[in-house]
Please model this.
Amino acid sequence: MNGATVFVVDDDRAVRDSLTLLLEQEDIVVEVFAGAESFLAACRPTSKSCAIVDLRMPGMSGMQLQAELSKRGILLPLIFLTGHGDIPTSVRAIKAGAVDFLTKPIMGSELLTSVKAALRESERMSMQAEASQTATASIASLTEREREVMALAVEGLPNKEIARHLGISHRTVEIHKARIMHKTGADTLLDLARIADAGGLRP
Model:
């Protein structure tokens, strides 16, 4: 798994050491932290990274860490690994976006399967974020009128309806649409719809 990084956040040194040994055998770069606070201070997620987090730690808990990462907009898939798991807690963690909720002791093969799934999710999230940034920049390059035309076009309205809705001529709509396609780099209306979705132009 070249280029992958896994952050291990656990106050138990024996757990940190055993996870490091297991993951490094898979050519994964491992960074270990004894607590959530030190992890937050140094956390630098990449496009192929995840974190294995203990649930109960001195200071900030694993669930509090998950909430803080979300608050900061840090895209990092989490795997909870705990000796104190229960169903309500696991449900809350998964609903909040955790990739998996595992209980100690665990088979190395099971943990690696979960890590691989989390790393795939990390790549997906990274690509989605990049597409969103690109789309937002494309939409920002449009004039207000062009954004209005684009919003109606991706809803499936024909040019005549757009013209009637905005009180402009059919020909003006065509000109706006040509400029929109050029500025956004879209080749088809479907491309334009994807850009609108990624850039938040429509709900």
